[in-house]
Design brief:
single chain; 383 residues; alpha+beta; Thrombin, subunit H; Pdz3 Domain; 2 domains; 6-stranded antiparallel β-barrel; 21 strands; 16% helix; 32% strand; globular
């Protein structure tokens, strides 16, 4: 699978074939060959280690004054360490992190997926204290490149999930993962890198895009896939998943990595926990744009309103769920169920949280008039 943000993306996976050749996902599919250590002296592996070293030597951005509640990076690492796990399959190694006291672990789909594109049923999980346990793959969602693994035992120390509402461009973030599966004497150890949020609401994809992704310049390398991107409050804001290639060199672009946004992560892992799969609802709208203040003024909508504007004449599919409920082109959607809708990514998350057959209240503006209509969601044509 290739992920694009207007470009092809490199998977961060380090599978058995990943060191010598690009993998299908240009993401952080963290797969290192199990047959040789990350420091093995092969041309590809040596180059990868040199590249990683170079990337982590970049001087960090000057720290701004800490906001109330923000932590220093060493404190974030101490907070996160008990939750970081190494995930090993027959195809390689990746990263995951514990999200519940009873042992649910979030990682990337491509970490648990074998070379044949089929997800493993079980994986080997190494905990932060070096203990090894068997993990069961509860479910996967290839469309968001996320997977959920369950381990027995506990109680564990989970990492809290944040919200994209708290993510701002320029904020400092910390990436943690088993980059290149590097060792520290007694065995593999995770790597910590820092950077900033370079942009938010990116779309990375092969066919159906992962919306609401975070772009970061924190160094991310093969083996980081499935690891958390953490803000200075100690909250997960994304799952590291992919790198952007440099089309001029054929290598990896420096300082451009991507993480699946936490709002998508929160919605997907809960669905996987509850049913082992993700069934997305379908509203039947397209051709919309984020509402801008100037457009809001022209429409008679309060200028501070956040929403998506169904601008195109064919924005509402005839006979689709939205049209059947009375939504039409020119309307502005501001809320679906309990979810505020300001971007296409927000709409995508709402469709994860509300599956086919769900009847949800949809708040709209039609000119200056505020309305609520009940929509029974359908099944996406491609699902």
């Amino acid at each position: 699978m290739k992920r694009t943000t207007g470009m092809r993306i490199r998977s961060l996976g380090m599978g058995a074939a990943a060191i010598g050749a690009a993998v299908a996902i240009a993401g952080c599919s963290d797969r290192l060959p199990n047959s040789e250590p990350a420091t093995a002296v092969t041309t590809s592996a040596t180059h990868a280690v040199q590249t990683a070293a170079t990337a982590t030597q970049v001087a960090p951005q000057p720290a701004a004054t800490r906001a109330a509640g923000e932590l220093a990076v060493p404190d974030i690492v101490k907070l996160a360490e008990p939750a970081i796990v190494r995930i090993e399959t027959g195809g390689g190694v990746g990263t995951g992190f514990i999200v519940s006291k009873d042992g649910y672990i979030v990682t990337n789909n491509h970490v648990v997926e074998g070379g044949n594109g089929v997800a493993a049923r079980t994986v080997n999980v190494t905990l932060s204290d070096g203990g090894r346990v068997a993990g069961t793959v509860v479910g996967t969602d290839p469309r968001s490149d996320l997977a959920l693994v369950k381990i027995d035992g506990g109680p564990y120390s989970p990492l809290p999930l944040g919200s994209l509402d708290r993510v701002e461009i320029g904020q400092e973030v910390v990436a943690i993962g088993y980059a290149l599966d590097l060792t520290r004497g007694e065995g593999p150890s995770f790597t910590v890198t820092t950077g900033i949020v370079s942009q938010k609401n990116r779309a990375i994809s092969e066919t159906a895009p992962i919306l609401g992704a975070i772009q970061t310049d924190a160094a991310i390398n093969h083996g980081n896939s499935g690891g958390p991107l953490i803000n200075l409050f100690g909250e997960v804001v994304g799952v590291n998943t992919s790198l952007a290639p440099d089309p001029t060199t054929g290598g990896v672009a420096q300082g451009i990595g991507f993480a699946v946004g936490v709002d998508t992560v929160s919605a997907v892992w809960e669905q996987l926990r509850d049913s082992g799969k993700v069934d997305r609802g379908y509203l039947g709208v397209s051709g919309f744009t984020a509402l801008r203040p100037a457009t809001a003024r022209d429409l008679g909508v309060p200028e501070t309103t956040a929403g998506i504007y169904l601008a195109a004449g064919d924005a509402v599919q005839p006979g689709g769920p939205a049209a059947t409920a009375g939504i039409r082109s020119g309307d502005v959607i501001t809320m679906i169920g309990s979810s505020k809708i300001a971007t296409e990514a927000d709409l995508a998350v709402a469709m994860i949280r509300n599956g086919p057959g769900s009847t949800v209240p949809v708040e709209i503006y039609r000119g200056s008039q505020k309305l609520t209509v009940n929509v029974t969601l359908g099944t996406p044509p491609t699902q």
